Amino acid sequence: MELSTNMNLDTKNIIYSNSSLVDDFGRVFYYKDRIFRGVAAAYKEYTTALINSDFFKALQEKELIVKTWISEFNTPEFPLILEHELLHDSKPHQWSFQMLKDAAIHIIELNNLCGKYGFQLKDAHPYNVLFKNNKPIFIDLGSIVKKSDNSNTWMAYEQFINYNFVQLLYWSLGDFFAARKLIEDGNSPSVRVIPMNNILESNVFRPIENEIFNKVALSRFNDTYILQILEIFNRISFKLFKKNIKTIHYRRALKPYNEIINRIHFLEKPNVKSLWSDYHNVYSLNNKIEPPSPRFRKIIEITKGYQQYIDSSVDLAGNQGIFSELLRKEIPLKKVMLTDYDETAVDKAYIRFKCNNIPIIPHLYNFMIPLRDSEIEHLKADIAFALAITHHLILTQNYHLRTILERVNFHSKRYVAIEFMPLGLWNGNGEPDIPYWYTQDWFRKEFQKVFELILVESLEPNRILFFGKKKEKE
Question: Which of 7, 27, 197, 220 stands the most exposed, by the fewest C-beta atoms within 10 Å?
Answer without folding.
Answer: 220
